[in-house]
Amino acid sequence: MILHVRQLSLRSRILGSLFLVFLLTLAGALFGMWTYQQDRLVSMTSRRAMQAGFTVEAGLRTAMLANDRNAVRSVIAEMIKVANLAEISILDPKGRVVISSRRAKEGLVINRDVEPTCQVCHENGARPRPGEAAVFKEDGRYLLRSVVKIENRPPCFRCHPPDNAICGILMVDSFLDDTFDLIRTVAWRSLLTGVVSFCLVAFLISVIINRFVSRPVKALMEGIKHVEEGDFSYWVEVDGGGEFGEMADSFNVMSRAIVRYIEEIKAKNNEISSLYTLVQKISETIDFKKLKVIVVNLLLEILRADSIVLALPVDEDEGRFELVWKSRGEKHYISEYFAASEIAPHRILAKDELFSWLEGGFSEPRYLDHNTKVLIPLAHKNMRFGLLAIARENEAFSHSDKSLIPALAHHVEIAFTNAWLYNMAITDELTSLYTKRHFQTKLASLEENYRMTGEGFAVMMIDLDRFKRINDTHGHVIGDRMLSELAGLIRSNLRMGEIPCRYGGDEFVVLLPINDITTVRMVAERVHRSISEYWFEYEGIERFRMTASIGVACCPQHAAGASELVMVADSALYLAKESGRDRVHVASLDRDQGD
Predict the structure, then answer these.
(1) What is the distance between the alpha carbons of residues 284 and 418, in angstroms, rounded to a whole number?
(2) Burial degree of 334 (CB within 10 A; 0-12, 13-18, 19+)
(3) Is 313 helix (H, G, I), strand (E, B) or coil?
(4) Engineering a disulfide at 325: which of 93, 263, 309, 527 sits with its beta carbon 3.0 to 4.6 angstroms away?
(5) Mean pLDDT by 10 residues, the chain (595 residues)
(6) Can you tell me the distance from the alpha carbon of 188 to that of 195, in angstroms, rounded to the nearest whole number?
(7) What angle, rounded to 10 degrees, do the helices at 2-65 and 69-83 form?
(8) For 47-182, which CATH class?
(9) Residue 451's pLDDT is what?
(10) Residue 562 backbone dihedrals phi, psi, to 5 degrees
(11) Which 3 state secondary structure label does DSSP give 376?
(12) How crowded is residue 576: how many other Cβ atoms within 10 Å of its Cβ?
C-alpha cells in the first residue's frame, strides 16, 4: 500500500506540475489574446466606424445643403437602422448639438476639455490622430465613438463663412457588443480547446509516465521490498532500457553481490563454528584412543560426509594398520588391516591410495572422484599419524569446504601431536602399556568417581611364573621380547575402557571400571588362558609356553579405597603363587586365603 501511494504521489506531482504550467501558459495566452485582439478589433471597428461616419456624412450632405432638418433626421434614422448604430449627432464648430438621433441632446454643448469621451483623443489639449476613436460604457453597454469633421466646401458657403475650415462635426456612436461577444467566444473556445488538449496531453503523459517511470519505479520498489524481507534472489525486470533499466541492472547486480557476500559470511561463520566445535571437542580429551573416535565422528558431521575412515599405522615394518571408520546413521567401528591382505582397507580407501601416502606420494589433501572424495594426510613435522578418507555420495566438496578442510586437518594434527606426546609420557617404552604413574592417576580418578557416583571398579594383578629363569637362560633380550608379546596378549583380551599397565619388571596390572566379581573373574580367566596357551617362538630357541598368576580384587566388595584395593589384589596374587601358580585368585570377602 505504501508503494502504491508513493507511485500515485509521483504521478500526481508530475501531472500537477504540468497542469500548473498549462494554466499559466493558457492564462498568459488568453490574456495576450484578449488584450491584443481587443485592441485589434477595436481598431478595426474604429476604422469601419470612421468609414461609416464618412458614409453618413456623405449621405447627410445633400439634406444639410438643403437645410432641411426633417430630411436630415430621416436620413439619420435610416442610417441608424441600416448600420445598427447607437447614435448619430451633428455639432456646430462650437460644440453645440444641432441635430441628434436622441432629441434630448439637441442644444447641449459638449466641452471637449471636460467630456470624458473627448479626453481620449484630446487629453491635455492634444490634437486627435486620424482614425482615432473613443470607447466608453453607457447604460451597461460598450460604445465606440468616431468623430468626422464636416468640411466647409463651396456649396456650404451659402450658410457658412468661407473662412471656416469646417462647418460642423459629425459624431457616430457604434455598439461594441458584437466585438466583445466575439472576443469572449474566442476566449471560451480557446479555453475549452486548451482544456481538451491538456486532458489529451495529460492522458498521453500519464501513459508515458506509467510506462517509463511509474512501472519501473514500482518494479524497483518491489525489489527493495523483497530485499527488505530477505529475498535476495528476486530479479527486477524493467523494459525499455534507459536510466531505469540501468538502475534495475545495478539493483540486480547489487542483490546478487549481497547474496554472494551473505554466502561468504555464512561460509566463514560455518567455518569458524566448525573449527570451534572441533577444537572444543578434541580438547576435552588427550587420550589417543578416545581422540580417534571423536575425530571420526566430528569430521563426518562437520563435512556432511556419508563415510569416513581413519587409517593409523601400528607397525609400518609389518604393514599393520588400525582402521577407525563410520558411515552416516551407523556407529563407529575399529579393526586391523594388514598390507599383505588382497582386499582394500575400506570401500572408500583403496590399497594403492594408502601405500601412495606411505611412500610420500602426497602431503596435501587430494580430491578424487569428481571432488566427491578427499584423502587427508595427517602429519606434524616428522610425525605421520595417519590418513583420512572422507566421501560423499551425491555432493561434491565445494570451494568453502576445500578452504575449511586444511584448517580442520591442522587442528586434528595438533590434537594428535598432543595426544601422542602425552601417550609417550604415560606409556611404557618396552611394552607400549601404560606406566605405573598413569595407573596411579587413573586409580585415583576411579576412586573419586566412586565417591561421587557409587560406581565401583576392580584391579587385576598379573605376574609371569618363573620369569627370572628365562632371563638367566636366554638373556634379557629374549626376556624383553617376551614381555612385549605378553603385553600384546593382555591388551588383546581387554575391552575399551579397561586399562592395562606395566607395574614393574614382569608384573602387570589392569584397571577395570566394573565391580561385578563374576565379570571380573571372567576377564581374568580369559587373560590367563590366552597366556598359558600361547607359544613363544624365537630363532635358535625351542619354542615354549609360559604361565601366569593373577590376583583380583573389587571395590567396594574387597576394599573401601584405592590403596587398600591394590594391596588386596597384590595379596590375592601372592596367594595364587603360594597355591601353585598358573591360576586366577579372587580375593575373598572375609579376606581369608582361599579361592
Answers:
(1) 12
(2) middle
(3) strand
(4) 309
(5) 46 72 74 66 63 65 69 79 80 83 82 70 63 69 78 72 78 77 78 80 77 74 76 71 72 77 72 74 80 90 92 76 91 87 91 90 91 92 88 90 89 88 86 91 93 94 91 89 92 89 93 93 95 91 92 93 93 93 87 42
(6) 10
(7) 160
(8) alpha beta
(9) 92
(10) -65, -50
(11) strand
(12) 26
Backbone angles phi, psi at 66, to 5 degrees: -80, -10
Q: What's the confidence (pLDDT) of residue 224?
A: 80
Residue spans of alpha helices (H) in 96-176: 116-122
Report the top-level CATH class of 436-586.
alpha beta
Place of cell 557416583: 453
Retrieve residue 522's grid coordinates: 571372567
Rg (the chain; Cα; Å): 63
- Residue written as grid cell 601358580: 581
Nearest to 515 by CA among 580, 453, 440: 453
Q: Which residues contact 139 (CB under 8 A, 6 or more apart)?
A: none
CB burial class (10 A; 0-12, 13-18, 19+) of residue 509? buried
Note whether 47-182 and 436-586 share their fold. Answer: no
Q: Which long-range contacts (CB under 8 A, 24 or more apart) does 322-331 make?
A: 322/292, 324/292, 324/293, 324/296, 325/296, 326/296, 326/297, 326/300, 328/300
Separation CA 442–CA 452 (nearest Å) = 15
Query: What is the assigned CATH class of domain 278-423?
Result: alpha beta
Domain ranges of the chain: 47-182, 278-423, 436-586
Sign of CA dihedral 257, 260, 262, 265: negative
